[in-house]
Specification:
about 65% helix; about 500 residues; two-stranded antiparallel ribbon; globular
Length: about 500
């Protein structure tokens, strides 16, 4: 006869059944939740590869590109000093960037977030091979280490541009001290003000939450969206457009260099002796390398390998060509002969001007910008410079500051879809999908002008203070006898050429 199960056994069996049912229900809920929750975006190998290449291209712009461009423009006795200054800046700023620069530029700064970030990622704390950084498309990311390296190249080329304004007369120790202070108090905050924001996915999530919120939760959801929108630098919140660094890089460096050349004074013999470039061959090589590297600078700033990167690329071709031609023919008409130096200078001016507009202007608009820039920058580097008599050794102000201003303001015009521009994106109207936003040319141009003025004041006044501090502590300028001897021997104890 089969024994009947005991009461205890029955309870155990029932309990086991309930437990299994609960587990199965929990698993089903978990599966439903997983299906409902969007998967975390994973970097695309194509985008990652493009950004790795772009990063190396921007390094190429600086060393050897900018170093050779500047080196060829100075006299033989100062060639090596220019190479050393640019190369050293690359090394020093790279370290400062990973120590605290990236954190100050691209994290939230709390109460000071309008102007500068914080130290939450100092020494790259919390960043590993799985960390990602947002791009400009919803659901698209790149490895954060790649983004850190890409932005690092912008951080070191910007102060390297400055040295051309006071070439052949500044102490090496004073220069390096100034650069450390300048990137800390001028560049990192400027990059934060223009380029720091929460990213498209953060905006989409907050906007969707607002759209889905019940009536009683609308206020809280709106506050959450406002908080995400406000988590950005001041100029970004204003709506200033700067695709690849018109304000952050060129106006920033150009006005700092101009202030420096005024505070250091003119080179010995300026206006009396012939201070001609020693090797226009090297200058041309440097200009060509700058142009090649600039495709990483501009097209890479799209952060993705797509049509917008292609737009930035073609604009970097045609605006640059237009500016080179404009400068060449303007000089030819005014001085009687077209020069290689003029052509190379026009090419660089065009690269500068198209930088903020690269991803916003249409190709025909970019050509117009290049033509205007070539003429205006030629006038500033010749007539204006001669009239006022300042010794901007390698025309940093006339090319980078003036070209940057033309490009920044011109972006507000050329971004208009009515002129073939790309317009601006709205990440909130349709959460999760970037759509064309409303564009007002007048409003945008006014915003661009405000951004230019902020950059001029922030960098101009700030740089003057930093120069003065360095002058009081170290002294900015080499002694007269060392300047006559040349900085190669006086500062570095070696020559660029031993013949």
């Amino acid at each position: 006869m089969t024994a009947l199960p005991s009461r205890k056994t029955g309870l155990i069996t029932a309990g086991f059944g309930l437990a299994m049912q609960a587990l199965m229900t929990s698993a089903a809920w978990a599966q439903e939740a997983a299906a409902a929750a969007p998967a975390a975006p994973v970097p695309n190998k194509g985008d990652t590869t493009w950004m790795l290449i772009s990063t190396v291209l921007v390094l190429l712009m600086t060393v050897p590109g900018l170093a050779l461009f500047y080196g060829g423009l100075v006299r033989t006795k100062n060639m090596l000093s220019m190479l050393t200054q640019v190369f050293t800046i690359v090394c020093v700023v790279s370290l400062l960037w990973v120590f605290y620069g990236y954190s100050l530029a691209f994290t939230s700064g709390g109460a000071l977030n309008d102007y500068v970030g914080g130290f939450s990622k100092a020494f790259l704390r919390g960043v590993d091979v799985n960390s990602v950084a947002a791009t400009f498309s919803n659901g698209v990311v790149i490895p954060e280490f790649v983004y850190i390296c890409f932005q690092m190249t912008f951080a070191f080329i910007t102060p390297a541009l400055i040295v051309g304004a006071f070439a052949e007369r500044m102490k090496f120790s004073a220069l390096i001290t100034f650069v450390v202070l300048w990137v800390t108090f001028i560049y990192f905050p400027m990059a934060h003000m223009v380029w720091y924001w929460g990213g498209p996915d953060a905006l989409a999530t907050a906007a969707k939450a607002l759209a889905d919120a019940p009536a009683e939760g609308k206020a809280a959801a709106q506050a959450a969206l406002d908080a995400v929108t406000a988590d950005a630098g001041m100029l970004f919140q204003w709506g200033a457009l700067d695709f690849a660094g018109g304000t952050v890089v060129h106006i920033n460096a150009g006005i700092a260099g101009f202030v420096g050349c005024l505070m250091l004074g003119k080179r010995i013999g300026f206006g009396r002796e012939h201070l001609a470039p020693h090797s226009l061959t090297m200058t041309m090589i440097g200009a060509a390398l700058l142009w090649v590297g600039w495709f990483g600078f501009n097209a890479g700033s799209n952060l993705e390998a797509n049509g917008s990167a292609a737009l930035a690329m073609i604009n970097t071709f045609v605006a640059t060509a237009a500016a080179g031609v404009a400068w060449l023919f303007t000089e030819w008409g005014s001085k009687g002969k077209p020069s290689l130096l003029g052509l190379a200078s026009g090419v660089v001016a065009g690269l500068v001007a198209v930088t903020p507009a690269a991803g916003f202007a249409g190709p025909m608009g970019a050509i117009c910008l290049g033509l205007v820039t070539g003429v205006v920058c030629f006038i500033f580097c010749s007539a204006i410079k001669n009239t006022f008599g300042y010794d901007d050794s390698l025309d940093v102000f006339g090319v980078h500051c003036i070209g940057g201003i033309l490009g920044a303001i011109g972006t507000g015009i050329l971004a208009s879809p009515d002129l073939g521009g790309a317009g601006i994106l709205d990440y909130v109207a349709k959460p999760g999908e970037a759509v064309a936003g409303a564009f007002s040319m007048g409003t945008q141009v006014f915003t661009q002008i405000k951004a230019v003025l902020v950059t001029l004041v922030w960098s101009g006044v700030g740089s003057a203070i930093l120069y003065k501090i360095v002058d009081l502590v170290i002294g900015l300028r080499v002694p007269t006898d060392q300047e006559r001897e040349g900085l190669d021997i006086a500062e570095h104890g070696e020559r660029a050429y031993n013949m």
